[in-house]
Write a structure and sequence with these properties.
A 3-stranded antiparallel beta sheet has the order 1-3-2. It folds into 2 domains: 63 residues, Orthogonal Bundle (Arc Repressor Mutant, subunit A); 143 residues, Four Helix Bundle (Hemerythrin (Met), subunit A) (Up-down Bundle). 72% of the residues lie in helices and 5% in strands. By secondary structure, the chain is mainly alpha-helical. Helix 4 packs parallel to helix 9, helix 5 packs antiparallel against helix 9 and helix 8 crosses helix 10. It has 10 helices and 3 strands. Keywords: DNA-binding, Transcription, Transcription regulation. InterPro entries: GntR_C (IPR011711), TF_FadR/GntR_C (IPR008920), Tscrpt_reg_HTH_GntR (IPR000524), WH-like_DNA-bd_sf (IPR036388), WH_DNA-bd_sf (IPR036390). It comes from Pseudomonas umsongensis.
């Protein structure tokens, strides 16, 4: 595998390892050995160390003294904590769009993503579906104009992707539920109905939490 700009080498290595963790190819508790990663990807050990620090910041691995780096465990408590926090941040972002959009063209990115989500559901492409679920979030950043919120959401996104992927892998029909929720959310944003935005996203967070915990139980 060859890594190139524009992302830093460490970011590219982190993304590669994150994808393997999100897809479940690297299991909870599995050790990540710097030397093996260095040899497998033909990169420097320093870049791998930096990549592991990025993954630790994104809650996909833990680095422990004398034990090295391990893939973090997914527990019910972690899932509930993550879903609760992400729901509140999604509400902030959705409220920013509802407040800030002025013409229909401002909403075009969300409509396009909705169309891609529908296409991913129809072909049962879980990975593309999860990716576009978070592209919805990224399309809101310009409305929120809050670098601290954006950084926090981006750092938590891989952990949330991992949880969603697990749930959808085991229960593919749940993609239709997410589509229905997104349709309701988009309608609430267009109507600038802030109570409904909170209602929809709170339900979304709770449903996501329930699905992931159920998937954990079945795993």
């Amino acid at each position: 595998m060859t890594f190139k700009a524009p992302d830093s080498l460490a970011e590219q290595i982190a993304h590669h390892l994150a994808e393997r963790i999100i897809r479940g190819e690297m299991k909870p508790g599995e050790r990540i050995q710097e030397q093996k990663v260095t040899q497998a990807l033909d990169v420097s050990r320093g870049s791998v160390r930096e990549a592991l620090l990025i993954l630790e910041r994104r809650h996909l691995i833990a680095i422990l003294p004398r034990r090295g780096a391990h893939v973090t465990e997914l527990t019910a408590h972690k899932v509930k904590s993550l879903c609760t926090l992400m729901s509140e941040m999604y509400i902030l972002l959705a409220n920013a769009v509802a407040t800030g959009w002025k013409v229909q063209a401002d909403l075009a990115p969300f409509v396009q993503i909705q169309q891609r989500l529908t296409a991913s559901y129809e072909r049962q492409d879980i990975h593309a579906f999860v990716d576009d679920s978070f592209n919805v979030m990224r399309a809101t950043y310009s409305f929120a104009n809050n670098p601290y919120l954006q950084e926090t959401v981006e750092n938590l996104q891989p952990a949330m992707s991992r949880a969603y992927f697990l749930a959808l892998e085991q229960r593919k029909a749940s993609m239709s539920e997410y589509l229905e929720l997104f349709e309701r959310l988009l309608a609430a944003v267009i109507a600038r109905d802030f109570p409904l935005i909170r209602e929809v996203l709170t339900a979304y967070g709770q449903r996501s939490c329930d699905l992931v915990i159920s998937a954990l139980t079945d795993a």
